[in-house]
Structures are given as structure tokens and as C-alpha cells.
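Archive entry. Fields below.
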Amino acid sequence: MLRTYEYPKYPYRQPPEQKSGGTGRHRVVVVGAGPVGLAAAIDLAQSGVAVVLLDDDDTVSVGSRGVCYAKRTLEILDRIGVGDACVAKGVSWNVGRTFFRGAEVYKFKLLSQPDHKRPGMINLQQYYLEEYEVRRARELANLDLRFRNKVRAVAPRSDGVVLEVETPDGGYTLQADWLIVADGARSEIRRQLNLEVEGKVFSDRFLIADVLMKADYPTERWFWFDPPFHPGQSVLLHRQADNVWRIDFQLGWQADPDQEKRPDRVIPRIKAMLGEDRKFELEWVSVYTFQCRRMADFRQGRVLFAGDAAHQVSPFGARGANSGIQDADNLCWKLKLVMDGRAPDTLLDTYSEERGFAADENILNSTRSTDFMTPKSATSLNFRNAVLGLAGDHPFARALVNSGRLSVPTILTESRLNTPDAAAFGGDMLPGAPMDDAPIEEEGERSWLLDRVGNRFIALIFVDDPASVGPAQARAMAALASAPIPVEAVLVSPTGGAGPPGLRVWLDRAGRFAERYDTRAGTTYLVRPDQHVAARWRAFDAQAIGAALARATRNAEP
Amino acid sequence: MSLKLEPNFHEPGKRYVRAFTPGDDFYESLIETHRDLSDEQSAMVNARLILLLANHVGDIAVLREAMQIARAGV
Ligand SMILES: Cc1cc2nc3c(=O)[nH]c(=O)nc-3n(C[C@H](O)[C@H](O)[C@H](O)COP(=O)(O)OP(=O)(O)OC[C@H]3O[C@@H](n4cnc5c(N)ncnc54)[C@H](O)[C@@H]3O)c2cc1C
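PREDICTED_STRUCTURE:
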């Protein structure tokens, strides 16, 4: 137990298959109730797919792990019903400061534009995130969350997977049509299936301390290169919920992890940083080394890997859980379409393609950050210090300072599911982009674009005046909803007002939709269930939408 | 022309979504150029690099400005 947090102890119940001695067959089994497995199980259950989620433990993540959850992740958490809890408990922030020796050299702002529902980042101890996800999971009748169910062995078959599971009552067998593996960085299942993870381990150690204290530092991310209180190394300070502060000290490769964890070593380091007079208590201390690596393919037939099991990054950039939750976001709608027979099995290959592309970007950025922070040669150190030395006065050098390029979602530019633009567009909402938020209003009720899209395909059609849409066009728009894969057509308008019967109208109440999506009258976006742009046009064309939908679900190859 | 001190890295044909990407691309190549070299070799590579870039810039007034900034505060 921590001073500020009591780990929940979730009940174990003997699984029905074990009681009856039978072998249950399930549509989907998810292994691992970490942030990623939980997100996947909730997403599937919400969409009507019954899921069994197995975890070997009976509580949430122990000790100091994830802290920073990015805007895109919060938007996904909103979609699966835990965004509000996380944001209410978490500490929102937007500003990061970087110091070199004594002086501030660089300050960044995560979200420079107004009118997004969610902040650039929140800080929240990982155990809270998991606790809220578990709470949500337990609300869903079709989500069977089984604690103290350890998967021992996995046997892939052409039409499913057989699992050997161990509980306090002994072993039992489960069958699944599909298996999602989210069992973390040390994935035992990945090892059993002889699947490699390739990449590099950084020869460095970091002391990660969670400290309870009352301090009136602003809620910002502070990063020091070579500070007077920890010479030659870097230090990171972050505020979390409950007045718990996260401090990361770079220790170097030579450090002895067991020695460094001892309070008589840790406390002087913290005192040197905070001053002798600051009162604090240690919540948790660990020493980590980090790696950046990924599996070559996140899909092996009916087995799909997600989160740390599939890819790992160093935490400078907060891209671990953030990208894992984005994996779940990408996977679940595809899996559902395939299970329902509405899309070919090859749609799932694009899970690995798209999220592999994202993993490469995350690994690239985390590796670059780590290389900047922990230079590997005298020359690298020289360049690093030269950049930091110039950064105070010169903007070009500030742009090179890399104390972590914080998690932003990948724009899936290379995806085969995108329909390339046929017309010119400004802005960033290109095919493959996760959608930007915008304030909207529907029938007098204010809300946010991202609270209203997702979980299904949507066509957003921008019109100056909803009343001006003719009956034939309105019928063509509404008819999209009765296709085998339904598309809901919604009119977005700067004036609002009623549209033709059967069509929803969203008022672009701050003009941000028009601005961010570079719209003109007629501009139409086709949006995926995971809130990514699939295609866009300058005029509504039902046939073009049908073709783009087929492409986005691999029902037609370009 | 005077010395450019605003961020200026770019590559023809590349579209950047994140402002930090071009600078990071450059920095990675720079560090990569020195991979597996001894300190002495690295110092030589740096000297050659400066000469190549200086000739490319050409404008000696600009180079003087850069040399002055580089030297100040070291
Ligand atoms: C110091 C530190 C700081 C970090 N900071 C951040 C940050 O700021 N932001 C961020 O996004 N990420 C951060 N991360 C990374 C983040 O913690 C991980 O990316 C995240 O936990 C991955 O989630 P996961 O669900 O894939 O795996 P895990 O969280 O590892 O969960 C795996 C689950 O599977 C269970 N399991 C394992 N094997 C079996 C089995 N055989 N049968 C049944 N269950 C099994 C485990 O008990 C566990 O519950 C940080 C990590 C560290 C160490």
C-alpha cells in the first residue's frame, strides 16, 4: 500500500469452464488487463462482441509506471467511457520547460490552438487509469474479466486458438476464435510462439522516484540537462495526482540498481534537488533500463499482439501506453467487421501495417530523444551541449533541443485503407489523420465533434445552409445508412438550423471545423470508426463514398 | 543576407506534420556521421564539415557572424 493509494484487490471466481470441466469457445479472448488489454476488451464489448479478458494478477499496475496520457489517448478513453474519470483525477498541463545547468533554455506548449475538449496531456499514475478501466469493464455485461487467470500455453489453429489457463483452482482449457495478446513487454506468449522483438536496449539506468510533497511548483514538465544538483546527468520532474511528484534521475550504466534504490541513496539525491528544507515522503522507487524494439508483424493468423507485447519504447516521450491504447483503437473495429463477415480477413493485416508504421515513428522519436539525452560519445556530448548552449539565444537551436518529443498520434499517411485526395486541401486532416476536435452543437445542445464521431463510419458533409439540401440529395445521403456497412451521413454547417428529415445537423459553433478541415460548401469527409479520416472530397458523391468505404474495409482493392 | 537563426531545416519533397521533425532528421544524420569514429577522427570530420559548409554558404560576412556567435560564450 502507498500513502496516497490503496491497491484494489479484485475478486477471483472460478471460471465456468473449470467448474463444468468443459471447454468453452469464445469469440475473442484478450490476455492481459493492463491499460491496453482493458481498452481492447472494453471497446469490443461496447460494440456488442462478448469478450473474455484474462489477467494473472488481481490488482492494478504496481509502482511507478506510466504518467503522461496524451490528448489523442484521452479522446480514445472518452470513446470507451473512462475519459472523464481520468481527466477529473489527473493533472492537466500544456507547458514544458527545459533547463541546461542553471538556466532555462527552452519552453514548449503542447497545444497551441484553443477549442479542443481535451488538454495536450494529463499526468495520472497508471494505477488510476487501470482502476477506471476495470470499473468500466465491470459495467459491461458481455465482458467477462477474470483475475488470477494466468495463460500458460497458447496453441494457434487455422480457425482459432486453444489456451491453457491456470487459476488458484488448477488448470483449464479455453478456445477462442481470436486472441488479442496484451501481456506486456516480457510477453510470455510471444516467446512461446518464437516471435522475435527486434531493436535496441539503451545502456543507461534511470532512478524513478514517486515523492509525496506539498509544493507550489506550476503544473509543468521540467527537464534538466546537467543540473548543478545532479551533475553530468539529466533529471525530469512531473506532477501527478494526490500531490505525488515523479522524479526521474539518469544514473548512467555503471550504477548498481539495488544500491541506488535504497532510501539512504535516494533521499540525498532528492534533497539536493529540492533543497534541504522541503518536506517529502517517498512513495515508490525503482530503477529501470529502457529499450526501443518491436515485433516485425503484430498479427500471426488469429493471434493479434498489442501494446508493450508488440512494441516498446523508452518513456521519454510517453509513447508506451499511449501508443498501446491507440493499437486497441485501431484493432477493434477491424476485428468486429471481420468477425461479422462484413470485411475480409485481410483487413486485419492492416492493423499490423498501420500500427507498425506508428510503432516505427514512436521508436524513431523515442530513440532520438534518448540519444540526445544520453550521448554515446564525447563528440555527441559536445554537439548536445553546443545545442543547449546556443538554445538560450537562438531559435534554431531551441528547435533542436530534444528532451522528449511527447506523444502525438501518427498520421497514417501510407495506409492502403486511405483514398488519396483528388482535390487540393489545406490543413492537416489528410487521409489517415486522426481527427482534430471542434466545438459543435446539435439541436441546441453543445458538445464536441469527437464525442459524436467514432464507433461507426460517418460521412460529414459541410453545407452552408442545411435547409438548402434538396430532397434527392438528402435521400442519397440517408441511404448510406442502409448499406451492409452502414455510413451515417451528418450535415455540418456554420449556421445550424434544421436539415431535411432523417439527417442530423451539427452546428460548427466556433468555426473550427471549417478551419481545421478546410471546408467549402459540399466538402465531405468519410471517417472511420476509430476517428481517422478515410477519404475526403469537394462535393458529396454517394458512389465515391461507397468506393472509399470498400477500400477502407478491404472489400475492394484499389 | 544575414545569418539565419530561425529554424531552417527542410528537405525537398518532404512534408512535415510535426515542427520538430526536420531538425531531428538533421541531428540524427549529424550524430550518425560520427558513429564509430575516435575523438580525433571526429574532430577531423567536424573540421572538414565546417569547411564544406562554409564554402557552400560563401558569403564571408555571414560566416563571420556565425564564427562570432560560435565563439562567444565558449
Ligand atoms: C518508468 C516508466 C514510465 C512510463 N511512463 C509512461 C508515460 O508517461 N506514458 C505512457 O503512455 N507510457 C508510459 N510508460 C509505459 C507504460 O507503462 C506501458 O507502455 C504500458 O503499461 C503498456 O501496457 P500493456 O497493457 O501493453 O502492458 P502491461 O501494462 O505490462 O500489462 C500487461 C498485463 O498482462 C498481465 N499478464 C502478463 N502475462 C500474463 C499471462 N500469461 N496471463 C495473464 N495475464 C498476464 C500482467 O499481469 C499485466 O496486467 C512508462 C513505463 C515506465 C516503466
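CURATOR_NOTE: Chain B has a mean pLDDT of 95.
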